[in-house]
Amino acid sequence: MSTNLWHERAAAQSIDGRAFIGGERVWAKSEQRFDNLSPIDGRNLGAVARCDGADVDAAVAAARAAFDDGRWAGKSPAQRKRVLIKFADLVQKYGAELALLETLDMGKPIKYSQSVDVNGTANTLRWYGEAIDKIYDEIAPTAANSLALITREPVGVVAAIVPWNYPMLMAAWKIAPALAAGNSVVLKPSEKSPLTALRLADIALEAGIPPGVFNVLPGFGHEAGAALALHMDVDCIGFTGSTRTGKQILQMAGQSNLKRAWTELGGKSANIVCADCPDLDAAVASAVGSIFFNQGESCNAPSRLFVEESIKERFLEKALAMMPDFQPGDPLDEASVMGAIVDATQLKIVMGYIEAGKSGGAKLLAGGRQARSESGGFYVEPTLFDQVDSSMTIAREEIFGPVLSVLSFTDVREAVRQANATPYGLQAAVWTSNISKAIQTARALRAGTVHVNQYDGDDVTVPFGGYKQSGNGRDKSLHALDKYTELKTTWIQIG
Fold this sequence. Notes:
- This protein is α/β, with parallel strands linked by helices.
- The protein has helices spanning about 5-10, 55-70, 75-95, 95-105, 110-130, 165-180, 195-205, 220-230, 245-255, 280-290, 310-320, 345-360, 395, 410-420, 435-445, and strands at about 20, 25, 35, 45-50, 140, 145-155, 155-160, 185-190, 215, 235-240, 260-265, 270-275, 305-310, 365, 370, 380, 385, 405-410, 425-430, 450, 485-495.
- Strands 14-17-18-13-12-19-20 form a seven-stranded mixed sheet, sandwiched between helices. A five-stranded parallel sheet has the order 9-8-7-10-11, sandwiched between helices. A three-stranded antiparallel sheet has the order 5-6-21, with no helix packed on it.
């Protein structure tokens, strides 16, 4: 689609900012609303319901009623499968609309909203739909005079709180396994990017998910999010976001009903490139492309690049040659590969880290400035720092922007030590031709995913999550069902 056509659609786009509770669109009970500003150019996309505790009570009550009467939980896995597959088909049918909403709301390039977010959302819904009628329960190997059945049951009412960087896809990572298992769901998207979550609620109803089973509450974390985490009738909460907020979620879960709480949190991922890297060009392209993808607003972004000293000069030459390819452009231009930072607050944070890098002694090789300020939106140049050490702020804290810090090493064991010297443990990578070194390094890196000779490998079949303060949750794969089901033992005495 041409850039002009995307802009025409954007100009004509109207949003429905009302919450979705019990199968109906409603404004917040308080009637409070907030403006939804696009990071592309600062325009007001429309008013969105500012939900709070009263709306949470209503949504949880609707979800509980739906769960208790079995309108969804009581359906067979094969029946839920058919609905979820239809849900996926409808996501693709409305793909252009959803992609436009995602780009307008969050600022990512439209090409990725289509290829990554829409397709990934549909694929996730379809995959869990296809999987759910192929999972068997167990019979324990007890004595002959007893029969012990081990069965999975839906946990009940699931609250899902998702971030602003992949609003639709990360919602799907949570709602797809939760719904497939038979739960009712209350989804709270970030106030910075609520639009696709609200549209998904309409599509879910069209697909055949009964009213009350899937509810969406836009609002602020300290209001709607906190009310969900503290609610006594929420059985489980899945959260993706910052480590600071994740700690608060865990505390609130303990303060209330000890609901199970699953957190997928921040990261400061290390990308280690050894001198015996099998393909230096591929390593450079991966390092640069992975950190600048989604404007650097990815929890798993490889923001710390460790390069062996003997190849560092060649590596940086190649990396600098690629930097012009990642200059931010119009997110509605399908040729753009980097778009806008989500809002003015995040822009200020990113620019603050860039200043901290310069004042802290790192050498700025490229970027470091705000871009496209005439647009009224929020853009940052792809930024590359050299001569970084692990004590610097830009090497320790999660920036969540297009900023790459380069550190050097002479011994891979020292690179691993520094890579692990962080409270995070989400992802990491090592590039080497030596299979023994690759395996030993992968084992030594304390991260939920370790890539070898690539960084972007990803599939719904593999779990996503981290060690340490990157959280305790695992999205994707069949393992995600563990979060949203209870194991029940039924012991039957025979004779």
